[in-house]
Amino acid sequence: MTIQRLPADAPPLATVARIGDFVGQTVTLRGWLYNLRSSGKIAFPQLRDGTGVIQCVAGRKDLGDEAFEALIRLGQESSLVLRGEVRADPRAPGGYELKVSGLDILHAAVDYPIGPKEHGPDFLHNHRHLWLRSRRQQAIMHIRHLSVMAIRRYFDERGYLLLDSPIFTPNACEGTSTLFETEYFGRPAYLTQSGQLYQEAGATAFGKTYCFGPTFRAEKSGTRRHLTEFWMVEPEIAFADLEDIMDIAEDFLVFCTQFVLEHGRPWLVELERDLSKLEAVQKPFPRISYDDACVQLAALGEPVDPDDDFGSPHETVLTQQYDRPIMVYGYPTAVKAFYMKENPEKPSRVLGVDVLAPEGYGEVIGGGQREDSLDVLLHKIQEHKLPQEYFEWFLDLRRYGTVPHGGFGMGLERFVTWVCGIPHIRETIPFPRTITRLTP
Ligand code: 4AD
Ligand code: MG
After folding, report:
1. Torsion region of 124: left, alpha or beta (phi above 0 gives left; psi -120 to 50 gives alpha)
2. Which ligand 1 atom lies nearest to the CA of residue 178?
3. How do residues 406-433 score in pLDDT, each as one tens digit?
4. Alpha carbons 325 and 361: distance in angstroms, whole number
5. Ligand 1: centre distance to CA 410 (Å)
6. Dihedral sign (CA 175, 177, 180, 183)
7. Which residues in the chain land under pLDDT 50?
8. Residue spans of alpha helices (H) in 117-264
9. How many CA atoms lie within 13 A of 268 on its CB side?
10. Ligand 1 pocket, residue 196 CB under 6 Å
11. 230 in ligand 1 pocket by Cβ < 6 Å?
12. Distance of CA 411 from the midpoint of ligand 1 (Å)
C-alpha cells in the first residue's frame, strides 16, 4: 500500500482539522479508532487522525454485513481508513460528522491499555508512548509547540542571532550539586546546565544572541517543578543592565502568553484553562526587591531568612497575591551563581532577577546582569572553588572589550505548565526525565 497516495478512484484525502472544507463531499480519512458505540444496525465510531477526533456514523445497510461486523468488533486504537460523506451537524462534537460508506482495516488492535477509566500517574507515564494519543496530552503538546513558535518568533523578529551552545561542557555553570557527569574520551565532561556562558561570548560577538536547547540538572528531589532534562531559551544582550533585562523579560513573557492565547485557544479550552488568567498577563509586572518580598512574606506567615533563597512555598504564597507575573530582583549574593554582578550599592545583593508566574506557579525565568570586571570575576571563581583553567576562555570576554551585559533563561516546561494551568511539569515534555524515570 502506498503511504501518501490513494488509489486513483478513492475520494480525496481529508483531515479532521480541515474537515469543514469538505462539507457535502465524500472524502477519505485515515486514523485510529478512538471510541465506538453500536447497536445491531448502526455504529458510531469516533476516528482520531492526529489532528482531531470526528464522530462517524456507519449503517449495516450501507456497509454490508461483513464490513459492519468487522468494524464493530474493532478494539480501541485499531488503525483504519474510512470513506464517507462529510456533514455539518451542530449536535456532533466538533460540528461535523462522517457518514461512512466504506472502510479498510489496517490493523485490529486488541486490549489497548489506556481506557476511559481513570489510571494512576505511574501507569500513564509507563505508557507515555501511548498516552500521547489522549486528548489532554495532545492539547498540552500543541501548547508546547505554540510556545516554541512564540519564543523563536520573539527573538527572531527582534534581531537576535540564534547561536547554539554546546551540550558537553568541561565545567559547571549553575553550581556543582546538580551536574551530570559523563566520560569524554578518558576525561570527565558534564552535560550542560545552561548555555549562558557561551551566549556571553555570543553577545560580545554579535550584540545579542539566544540559544534554545535541552539542559540537564541532576535534581535529586522529585518535585512538581523539576525535570532532569528540560529545554531552556537563553537570550544574552551586550550593553544591558538589570533594568534592561527586566524590560525585555517582561515584554517577552507578555508576547509569548498572548501568542499562545491567540493561536491555542481550542487546546486551552480542552484543558479547561481559565483564559482570563492569561489575558491578565500584561505590562507592567510588579518589580519587587528581594528584601521587600521578605517583608511581605513575613506578613503572610511564610518568613524567609534574609540571606537564604526562596523555597517553593515562598514563591507559591507570594505569587498568589498577584494577578500577573512579578519580578523579584536583588537576591542574596550568597545564594546565587558566581557570574552574577553584585549591586555596587549593596554587595550582599546581586543584580539578578527571577520572574515568578502567578497562581502559585513560581519561577519561570532567572537572569540578570553579569559580572563584567575581570578582577571581581576571578575572585568569584576562587570563592566558589571553581577550576579557573576551564574558565579562562570566559575570562577572556572580560579581558577583551568587556561591557555591561546580561540576559536570562526561561524553562520551556515551566512556562507550558503555567500556561496550561496544570499541576505537574512532567506532562509538558513528550518523554519526561526525572529522578525516578528514564523510560520510555
Ligand atoms: O534560574 P536558572 O538556574 O538560571 C540559569 O540557568 C541561567 N544561567 C539562565 C540565564 O541567565 N541565561 O534556570 C533558568 C530557568 C528557571 O527559571 C526555570 O524556568 C528553568 O530554567 N529550570 C528548570 N526547569 C525544569 N526543571 C528544572 N530542574 C529546572 N531548573 C531550572
Ligand atoms: Mg533560578
Report:
1. alpha
2. 28
3. 999 999 999 999 999 999 999 999 999 9
4. 9
5. 6
6. positive
7. 1-2
8. 121-126, 128-131, 135-156, 196-206, 242-263
9. 24
10. yes
11. yes
12. 6
- Ligand 1 in reach of 227 Cβ (< 6 A): yes
3-state secondary structure of 436: coil
Please name the helix (run of DSSP H) or strand (run of DSSP E) that holds residue 45, with its range, or none: strand 42-48
Residue 36, ligand 1, Cβ within 6 A: no
What's the CA-to-centroid distance between 365 and ligand 2, angstroms?
A: 7
Which atom of ligand 1 lies nearest, measured to the CA of 199? Answer: 12
53 C-beta closer than 6 A to ligand 1: no
Q: What gap in Å lies between CA 293 and CA 287, rounded to an integer?
A: 10
pTM beyond 0.85: the answer is yes
C-alpha cell, 328: 523579584
- For residue 225, the model assigns a pLDDT of 95
- pLDDT given for residue 175 in this prediction: 84
> Which atom from ligand 1 is nearest to the alpha carbon of 339?
8
Closest residue by Cα to residue 351 from 252, 245, 253, 196 = 245
Provide the pLDDT for residue 3: 62
For the chain, what is the radius of gyration of the CA atoms? Answer: 26
Which candidate, 85, 355, 58, places its Cα nearest to that of 233? 355
Whether the CB of 217 sits within 6 Å of ligand 1: yes
For ligand 1, atom 18, which residue shows the shortest CA distance?
A: 411
411 Cβ inside 6 Å of ligand 1:
yes
Residues in CB range of 127: below 8 A, 6 or more apart: 113, 114, 440
| Residue 366: predicted pLDDT | 98
No. of H helices and E strands in the chain? 14, 18
